[in-house]
User: What shape does this take?
Amino acid sequence: MNGKRGFTERLAGFSARHAWLMLGIWVLLLVGAFLLAGNMDITAEEGVSTTDAARARDLVLEDRGEPLLEEFVLVEADEGPIDEQLFESVVGSIVAEMRALPIVTSAVSYLDGATSLRTPDGRYALIQVTPNSPWMTTLRTATRYWR
Assistant: This one.
């Protein structure tokens, strides 16, 4: 080395020589963070309601009404050449099983003409599932049996 101490080395030395000062600074930072967090408008149901994302959500809800809940199922082909018939049968059977669930309003895949739900190389496909239940935990519980 050229004899000069780096910034972190100088900072570490200062912190070691002035331990009580550093402790006081950290306590002030923590107290300040708690005070700032206390000034945020946080609700139990919706989280922080003063963010730009929350305002955007409120505007969309005002314009369109209640949002549709959606889940996506990802189907991935094995490595190597893609067996198109096998891939279509797997996607088709998952879509059929999802549609058979009483809590599912619709299940859409690339087989229904939604070509944007499959990657250009054909290795991945999404199945868009819209439940009729307002509680996604019902659908999550139902899909746990496919694992």
The chain has two domains: 7-64, 71-146. The two ends are 57 Å apart (CA to CA). Residues 71-146 form a domain with the Alpha-Beta Plaits fold (CATH 3.30.70).
